[in-house]
Design brief:
Layout: H1 4-14, E1 20-31, E2 43-58, E3 62-67, E4 75-78, H2 93-105, E5 113-120, H3 130-146, H4 156-168, H5 177-184, E6 189-195, E7 198-204, E8 209-215, H6 226-251, H7 263-266, H8 273-283, H9 291-298, H10 302-307, H11 322-344, H12 348-366, H13 371-382, E9 387-391, E10 398-404, H14 408-418, E11 429-432, E12 439-440
Parallel strand pairs: 3-5
Antiparallel strand pairs: 1-2, 1-12, 2-5, 3-4, 6-7, 8-10, 8-11, 9-10
């Protein structure tokens, strides 16, 4: 049921009742951090916090979007063949990107107006997929306006790919995990998502355990200056891919081409983990690489190298730590498989060990943790968690901890005392459950 405040706001702003409602859930990534844009599998789960949108037709091809959270100013733009971005970091850029991408995909000849009011129980800037949930909900509203039916005229996997591309249009070099899980999740399972080839596998959650989200209270937005922090991972992996491809062409076959690092395992090469590790050790230098050194090793100009990286991406001050970052990618891939097997087998200890090892790798090898996330993981393990790790892009946001169901209350109190000084902010500690995927209300 829609929040009455949505109806009240919609009527007061637009002079009519909403024509429909849709929702998209947030997510936690149980394991598989920063793998999706490498074409490697991930293991997320939808959660019972979500973004809801009330919507109705707009006049004159104008799209207007309001938010019940006063921190997000009302926005509007003209629906047209070309839709410019708003200011950098503006929240309505997500809606603009969605409409722009769907118009292009469906070769729209008509550009209808749309009114939307957004309400969320999902905290933003917490690394729980809030921006992707917004994009998915906006997409459902706009598809309904276009008369296009999800699951009939367009599949959920196809839509998730379009929305991942739309997100990249905002300057975020993501890989599609968040959009896919928001559309494919359900209230019983986690979902293992493979990208090569695209498929999903529903994995049972541990019924005797809960995942508990703890917010570091350090915002983890993927807009503004923080965008470059997030994009360093995709940029480094693109450089690593080019170096590996160059090595394989010289040593194995000049016709070898790699779309991403995942092609080592899933492409025509079909390498084992051991074989892929040996290739990385030979192709990736131990020392950090700046743009000039990387371009020289790849055999291109610095300008050509920059053209393959996320837009406006600056050269890292100390260069790319490629050896360590690639080590995270290949070991995290194995941990996804181990966690899948542990969940299917009801092995909570094995799942917890994989989670904690993942966090250590995210922190030391990939460099996407922060002191607050590290402190939360330590506190969670001391409070009785079986395993704990950061979830999401990093640099702030949340951890997730695996806790026995009967221990949840004691764990929550322990975290409240140890990390939050006995007074956690609202929604800082959230025991969560799997939730239905996106759809119409």
């Amino acid at each position: 049921m829609a929040n009455p405040a949505i109806d009240e706001t919609f009527i007061s702003r637009f002079g009519a009742s909403p024509g429909g409602y849709c929702q998209a859930p947030g997510r936690i990534n149980l394991i598989g951090e920063h793998l999706d844009y490498n074409g490697l599998p991930v293991l997320p789960m939808t959660i019972d916090r979500r973004v809801r949108v009330a919507y109705g037709p707009g006049e004159g091809g104008r799209i207007r979007i309001e938010n019940l959270d006063a921190r997000f100013a009302p926005a509007q733009f003209v629906n047209a063949p070309s839709i410019p971005e708003s200011g950098q970091g503006a929240w309505d850029n997500y809606a603009r990107a969605v409409v722009r991408e769907l118009n292009a995909h469906f070769a729209a000849g008509d550009f209808p107006g749309l009114h939307m009011v957004v309400e969320a129980t999902l905290p933003d800037g917490a690394g729980l997929g809030s921006s992707s949930a917004l994009m998915v909900a906006v997409a459902l509203a706009y598809l309904d306006r276009l008369g296009i039916r999800i699951d009939k005229d367009i599949s959920r996997f196809e839509l998730s790919g379009l929305l991942a591309r739309a997100e990249r249009g905002t300057g975020i070099a993501g890989g599609g995990m968040d959009q896919t899980i928001a559309l494919a999740g359900d209230e019983v399972h986690a979902v293992k998502i493979d990208f090569n080839p695209p498929r999903i596998e529903r994995i049972p959650c541990l019924g005797s355990h809960r995942f508990v989200v703890c917010n570091s209270m350090v915002e983890a937005r993927k807009t503004g200056a923080a965008r470059h922090l997030y994009n360093e991972g995709p940029a480094a992996c693109r450089v690593a891919r080019a170096l590996v491809e160059r090595y394989l062409q010289a040593e194995w076959d000049p016709g070898i081409e790699l779309r991403d690092l995942g092609d080592l395992w899933f492409g025509p090469l079909c390498l084992t983990h051991e074989e892929a590790g040996k290739v990385f050790d030979k192709a990736i230098p131990a020392e950090p690489l700046g743009f000039e050194d990387a371009a020289r090793r790849i055999g291109c100009s610095v300008a050509e190298l920059r053209a393959t990286l996320p837009r406006d991406f600056p050269e890292p001050a100390r260069g790319f730590r490629l050896r360590a970052m690639v080590r995270h990618v290949r070991t995290e891939f194995r941990r996804v498989e181990w966690m899948r097997d542990a969940l299917i087998g009801g092995d909570a200890e094995g799942a917890g060990e994989s989670m904690t090892a993942s966090h250590k790798s995210c922190a030391s090898d990939y460099g996407v943790s922060c002191p607050e996330l590290d402190a939360l993981v330590r506190a969670a393990l001391e409070a009785g968690a079986i395993g704990s790790r950061m979830t999401g892009a990093g640099f702030g946001g949340c951890t997730i901890s695996l806790v026995e169901e009967e221990m949840t209350g004691r764990f929550v109190q322990g975290m409240a005392d140890s990390y939050y000084g006995g007074a956690p902010p609202p929604n800082a500690i959230l025991p969560v459950r799997a939730a239905p995927g996106a759809g119409y209300c």
